[in-house]
Amino acid sequence: xxxxLGLCTIALLLAAILTKRLSPxxxxxxxxxxxxxxxxxxxGTGKFVLTGIQNLAPVVGMFVFAILFFGIVSDAGLLDPxxxxxxxxxxxxxxxxxxxxxxxxxxxxxxxSGAVTFLITIPAMLPLYDRVGIxxxxxxxxxxxxxxxxxxxxxxxxxxxxxxxxxPIPDIFTPLVPVQAVGLVFIFAVSYWxxxxxxxxxxxxxxxAVEAVAAGTRVxxxxxxxxxRPDRFWLNLVLTLAVxxxxxxxxxxxxxxxxxxxxxxxxxxxxxxxxxxxxxxIDAHAKAAIxxxxxxxxxxxxxxxxxxxxxxxxxxxxxxxxxxxGLAPHIPFALGLVSMPLSMxxxxxxxxxxxxxxVAEVAHQLGVPPLQVAQGALxxxxxxxxxxxxxxxxxxxxxxxxxxxxxxxxxxxxxFLLAASVVMTFAAVAFGVFPL
Length: 436
Hints:
single chain; mainly alpha; globular; Cit_transptr-like_dom
């Protein structure tokens, strides 16, 4: 009975989110609470909800202050010299321009926001692409590759996986560091190859050079210039490296949420010492922070009820009978291979909070650590998959900024993103993250 109730709960959750009948926030709260009441758990539902929210509190805190921190140092101009240097260095050769685009997008995506990455990278590089004559689909692809391979601890998929399975983010991320390094090498190789191919198409390879073409330049608005603090660049850089380095190297001793809290406070003091200015910077980035925090807290309601009522365990026990024991160790590897295409079918909330817990519990029943299941999912599901998924606004943002059709973008970029996911999956096997 519990297994059937759990299956109906997840099916209803997925249907409500995918058909947009309910927002993820509403669906993650209303549907599991209703299911618990139908299951006869009554007032005990509140206890399950509270437990779920308490388990997610550190993740929510980290994400909120990560958004604030990166937003503040970006407002202060931390990335400006990097962007300008890249634009000045790439020159007019596509074999440099395309990898430069990838590098720029990768650096900007350190804040974990795909939308911000595309909003900065594409307008900065598009004039240069048009002047040289480079296919705009390549610009969309290069930016997508950089954002897609990034699954740093404060990115959405990583946080959702941690929240859904109640696993510490460092435990998930640290073994994936060399895997991500392989992915980065792959995307830069692809970017260079795409640039070289375009260079040959434009006959630049034979000429060795072309007529002088003005490099891409960025024009800041008056409001953006007023926020810049170029004289404090090195302070912001040292602060950022200290926060990230401490979080990665000492995550077991110092909570990541605390590092971002301290980083945010110091960034405000260094760059915007007046109280009014600090309030304005917080207000400027609060919308994005609160939106994700509310989703994560709602996810705590869902996961708390699914686990507290025993529905998740009952579903997994029922599914175990259909999985041959000999295939169980291969679940993470198989999930890694299919995780990127799954981005075309499931939005991040419905997958990580609806599908992944069931897969993880089935694997756990068969002796496979849920940690490996989370890592398999992160190799593609809404990481390499999100820039081409029709279920994410960022995909349409890429197409709109580049002035290309969605179908053209998907057809051109999908194979490279899928290849990146597959390469990282095999790298995960090679590094012993999970068995083949």
